[in-house]
Design a protein that fits this description.
The chain is α+β, with helices and mostly antiparallel strands. Helices cover 43% and strands 24% of the residues. It is built from eight helices and eleven strands. The chain has helices at residues 3-10, 16-25, 109-118, 120-146, 149-164, 176-183, 187-199, 216-222, and strands at 33-37, 42-44, 52-58, 60-66, 72-79, 83-84, 95-98, 102-108, 169-171, 203-207, 210-213. The strands form three sheets. Strands 1-8-3-6 form a four-stranded antiparallel sheet. Helix 3 crosses helix 4, helix 5 (149-164) packs across helix 7 (187-199) and helix 6 crosses helix 7 (187-199). The protein starts with a helix and ends in a 6-residue tail after the last helix. 36% of the residues are buried.
């Protein structure tokens, strides 16, 4: 397995809300089935019966919709410690597919609903998780609506740094096409943005999936954000 992917799975896309919900959901894990997926394998498809929600134990998955014109829109990427498949309807609204080798715990929606109904801590943790998910969706909507292509790519790199807890390099297990489908860009535009940042001395790319940050302040400026 490439070093970049190893790093991402050992320092995953964890949020505080995901960790909080994870502590509560762990009591349901004894009755859950664990699935192992290979890259490109579908965990659950759009339109399927939404019987489960899923905890990512290792690896990275992508969640997407296929539009009427065949264009794929990736709504988000999730790593170890995070949850996908919280459908509000009887049918799954998005397809979830493995980006890397993954282990995923399948938790019954019925069991989850009973736990939420009987535990205020559980319901509070789940609300925190879903609000965090909503915040991420709103940030992406604003980025697509208001930011330039370069700003979107830079903001994506900033997010990868933050979620991996690093400032020196970002590991990118997803393809450039996946990034393009997530940011509402073409793959040519994504690649050109990476090249521009490299020529400007903002980043270097020793490997395809490892982006070294040479000038963190410039990256934040390119994203239209302030360095923390």
């Amino acid at each position: 397995m490439p070093a970049a992917v190893e790093h991402l799975t050992t320092s995953p896309f964890n949020s505080e809300s995901a960790k909080s919900a994870g502590a509560e959901l762990s009591r349901l894990s004894s009755a859950a089935v664990v699935r192992r997926l290979t890259p490109g394998e579908t965990l659950v498809a759009e339109g399927e019966n939404a019987r489960y929600c899923y905890q990512i134990l290792s690896g990275v998955v992508k969640e997407y919709n296929t539009l009427e014109d065949g264009v794929r829109q990736i709504t988000d990427f999730y790593g170890a410690g995070e949850y996908v498949g919280f459908a509000g309807a009887a049918e799954q609204r998005q397809t979830v597919e493995a980006v890397t080798e993954c282990s995923v715990r399948c938790i019954s929606r019925d069991a989850l609903a009973r736990a939420v109904a009987t535990s205020t801590q559980m319901s509070g943790a789940l609300i925190d998780l879903l609000l965090n998910r909503l915040d991420r969706a709103q940030e992406r909507i604003i980025a697509i609506a208001r930011k330039t292509a370069g700003q979107r790519v830079a903001a994506f790199l900033v997010r990868m740094l933050e979620e991996q807890g690093r400032s020196d390099f970002a590991a990118l297990p997803m393809s450039r096409q996946d990034i393009a489908d997530h940011l509402g860009l073409t793959i040519e535009t994504v690649c050109r943005s990476f090249t521009d940042f490299k020529e400007e001395g903002v980043i270097s790319m020793p490997t395809f999936r490892r982006i070294v940050i040479e000038d963190l302040s410039a990256l934040f400026a390119a994203a239209g954000e302030r360095a923390h």
